[in-house]
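Example record for the data management plan.
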Amino acid sequence: MRIDLSKFAAGAFAAAVLVSAAVTTAAASPSPRVSYLTLSMASAYKPAPPAGATDDYHCSLLNPNVTSNSYVVSSNFVPGDKNSTEVHHAILFLVPPSLAATAEVANNGGKGWTCFGETIFSKENIPVPGVKNSNNMPSWLSAWAPGTGLTATPPGTGVLLPKGSLVVLQIHYNTLAGDVPIKSSLTLGTVPVSSSIKPLGLDLFPAPPDVPCLASWHPASTPLCSRANSLKYLGARFGQSAVNFVNLIEAACGRNPNNPPAGDSTACVWRYWHTATIVAIGAHMHLTGSSFKVVLDPGSARQKVLLNVKNFNFDYQKSYVLKTPVKVGTGDRIQVSCTYNPRVHDVNPQLRLAPRRFVTWGDGSSDEMCLALILTT
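Corresponding structural encoding:
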């Protein structure tokens, strides 16, 4: 099935695009010389969520002043200082020269801009399942999530950084963890474009969580334990587009958006729309995530478990390099499944400050996700 999920949430994805590894393993042998490029926000930013919300998405435009084509082979994001706990995740988007003017307008005189929802620019999209990214759309360069330090691409691969490009640093702040001003920075390791480096692609495969309230929470007397009320609460925090996206992925996964199956687990099967070789997989859930699994061609003779994270830890997220890369082709199926533990809500210091509710896909730290980030060559 090929589906145009043109509302795919750009700010929603937190798992690391690059993989946890030593930078010395990032390039093929003989190793090209790595140059380092440090980018920093112009000034500290104090999170300012909308009224009634605790999550803020803020974008900053950065100019790397690149004068020649190169590949990014490593990334090291520093979320403020060691006491900064309110950074939920960060994504670095590549802005091609054709979108530079749009980015400059959005940048609000160097102050940056609020970038909730499905796009970092109001009229631009990002890579989504079933849709090939064009050269006129922002795409990911790297990403950071809690537990991610210095990261590198799989050996012999890199993410293309064309000359004349700008970059947008999108940071998701969660004020349940703090609200002090933060000035973040990151350092990119780059190598010249050459035949020894293969360009990386990124495919995103979600599954929609529908986690009901625990019986001990007395759902009948807790308004947000109603899925309909919870979706209204989601829309009040992030806009109607967030609700539309929930309905979209429910339908894409063969469910009734008005009455999807509820439970502590979820799964969705997608079909590949191109040929590629999978080299690494990132797993992303939020604070109640318990386990995560990716299976190629489930139920067939070719069935293969690509990733099985049995004890997911939000504070230690990473991507996993496959020991043996796996080739996929048009029509191959990818199943993504996740399990949650809603009891964490009452013991996690951050979640305890959020209202008990029926949990769906959402951009907030107290919402949930189930997302496979598959890196290919």
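Summary line stored alongside the record: DSSP finds three helices and 22 strands in the chain.
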